[in-house]
Fold:
Amino acid sequence: PETLRIAFYVGAALMLCTLSLNVILAPDGQVIKTRNQDNLRMIIRSVALNKPLLLFMTAFIFAGTSFGMWTGLLFIYLDGYLNLADKIATILLLGNIAGLLSIPLWLKLIQSTNKSLALVTGMLFYTLLLAGCLFVKPGISWLLSMLFVGGVYTGFACLTVAAPAMLGDIADYGVLKFKKNRTATYFAVFTLFYKVTLGLGSGLALAIAGHFEFDAAITTQTDTAIFGLRLAFIILPVLCALIALIFIFRTPINEHRHNIIRRRIESRSANNRVEVFQ
Structure:
């Protein structure tokens, strides 16, 4: 509890510092004026009839649930099952640093190939490293746990980079199809679903582990409890990640099609026929 209390105050202080820097240093941008007011019916229609957006959102519902289940049980898995209590801070710290340092590499992959390929690559890397956690058992060197944890964070870091870029392409498709720019709405919906699925995934994982009577407060677990923990921490998250991959593959907007979309939008914008709603 004392550690969590200190972490809370440190996190709050850092957030205030970075928010202050944003207020001071971030550019103001340009205010976009619209001709007409938007309405809820049109917004719902622009989401419900945007097939690439629906495929993308479905993919991230499963991806977010997968990552939420994994993160929800990560501490318990390392402590209650692998008995690595004294190494958890090091494993999590290095894992997050690995994910952070991988972001420039994922950006280079996007620039040298395309957003879709980078997203698929990152998701595959995430899924493989997640599945690799099955080979980590009590008594094995903690360095192996650190390797797989860092790998999972690294793979998911790609999703945090490539996904918004792909969503930007999908928003352009929405502009072309519905003649209105609702990019902010699409990103708001994406952020909402992402946060919700992380929370639901964590709760679901804890519920499954509890259903199989895993008890983090005891040192000896039954085979059934261990199976339930591994089911919620590895097996189901891997299945969710694979389902997410299927929907990512089905997203139809690639670089060539996006270039066509942009040319048509630019041609239409010349006639002032696109309305912007933020």
Observations:
- The chain has a mean pLDDT of 88.
- Strands lie at 180-181, 275-276.
